[in-house]
# Entry
Amino acid sequence: MEDNCFCCDSGCTDIKNRSFKQMLFGELVHHFPFGLFSVSLSLIVLGFLKYLSSGISDSRLLTRNADLLFHSFHYMHIVFAGTGSLVCFFRFSKNILLGLLVGAFSTMFFCTFSDAILPFLAGQLLGVQMEFHLCFLFHLTNVLPFLAIGLLNGLVLGRFYPSKGAFYSVFSHFFHILISSFASTFYIVSHGLANWQGVIGLLFFFLIISVVIPCTMSDIVVPMMAARMSKKKKKNIMTPATRSDVVPMAAAGADKKNERN
# Structure
């Protein structure tokens, strides 16, 4: 496959000639290995936790520990999602206000989608009565500081270190997917699927979907599309003005020429 990963490649493939479907497909293909590795690692860690708690008769202990780990990873997920979104956006646009808005709303939506909504739906599909929990709704005072720090970090990296944008994109996106995998895994275990061993195959499949699609959209596709749309809008606004300036200048030049003759 010759297409490069648009935002992680140092060459930054030109996005002007790419449709949304081409961009989305290319990013999902290139970031699938990240998700596969991350989800595999999260399940390995989950297996170790299950093994270490095998001598404890109270199964609720694993659920409580998983819930604690979920919140820890979810908050860190918000930091890296905000950072990655802005780093990518500022590689294609310098609009700070738009970048902050895109980063904030993209982070809030896709972190919730990846860490809570999709794992909840996966548990339901697996026949488990899941408990629905949204941190942006129940723990907003804890969420907002992590969101603010993530956006600030993305602003600093994207605006003051533009020459290292490709490196920061890869670095932040890798840890974004890794942390998201742990958050999604511990959410589904702590909110209903305590006995996950019998459905680990389907769980593995659903977790990959829960991680790869939202993280790719948040870190790559949405920021790049927003930057491209803002540039098109700016170009359309400036073009008529430029053309209107050319006509009077040409007319003035012709008048001066006639006066000399």
About this structure: Residues 200-260 form the longest helix (61 residues). The helical segments are 20-52, 60-89, 96-125, 135-138, 140-160, 165-190, 200-260. Residues 21-51+60-231 form one domain.
